[in-house]
């Protein structure tokens, strides 16, 4: 199977294996993926493509505590996502 044929792509902690050049290449590829391909990105790295995604879920202790776009989550002054962005 080729990436172009995938309908679902799950990337789990991918940043642990990427240098800066490969990180940029991944963003380039994901931005040009087919529109019918859903990408689930699991990461602890806040810089990992969080601004170009349709929806973000923030989990704490196995529970979803927030969800929204980057802009929506950054508007929450007491939000966990915003705090993590500021700390990163």
Oligomer: single chain
User: What would you call the shape?
Assistant: globular
> Which strand order spans the largest sheet, edge to edge or round the barrel?
1-2
**Beta fraction of the residues?**
15-25%
Mean pLDDT reading:
82
Residue windows where pLDDT falls under 50 for at least 5 positions:
none
What summary fits the major beta sheet?
2 strands, parallel
Explain this structure.
This protein is α+β, with helices and mostly antiparallel strands. The chain folds into 2 domains: 1-47, no CATH class; 50-88, no CATH class. The protein is 30% helix and 24% strand. It has 3 helices and 4 strands; from the N terminus they run E-H-E-E-E-H-H. It has helices spanning 20-31, 70-75, 80-87, and strands at 8-12, 38-42, 56-60, 63-68. The strands form 2 sheets. It has a two-stranded parallel ribbon with strand order 1-2. The chain has a two-stranded antiparallel sheet with strand order 3-4. The longest helix has 12 residues, at 20-31. The radius of gyration is 14 Å and the shape is globular. The mean pLDDT is 82.
Short description:
It contains three helices and four strands. By secondary structure, the protein is α+β, with helices and mostly antiparallel strands.
Write the layout of secondary structure elements.
Blueprint: E1 8-12, H1 20-31, E2 38-42, E3 56-60, E4 63-68, H2 70-75, H3 80-87
Parallel strand pairs: 1-2
Antiparallel strand pairs: 3-4
């Amino acid at each position: 199977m080729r990436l172009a044929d995938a309908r679902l792509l799950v990337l789990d902690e991918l940043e642990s294996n990427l240098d800066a050049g490969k990180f940029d290449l991944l963003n380039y590829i994901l931005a040009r993926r087919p529109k019918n391909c859903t990408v689930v990105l699991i990461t602890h790295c806040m810089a990992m493509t969080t601004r170009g995604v349709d929806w973000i879920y923030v989990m704490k202790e196995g529970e979803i505590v927030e969800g929204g776009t980057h802009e929506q989550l950054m508007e929450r002054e007491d939000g966990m996502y915003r705090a993590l962005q500021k700390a990163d």
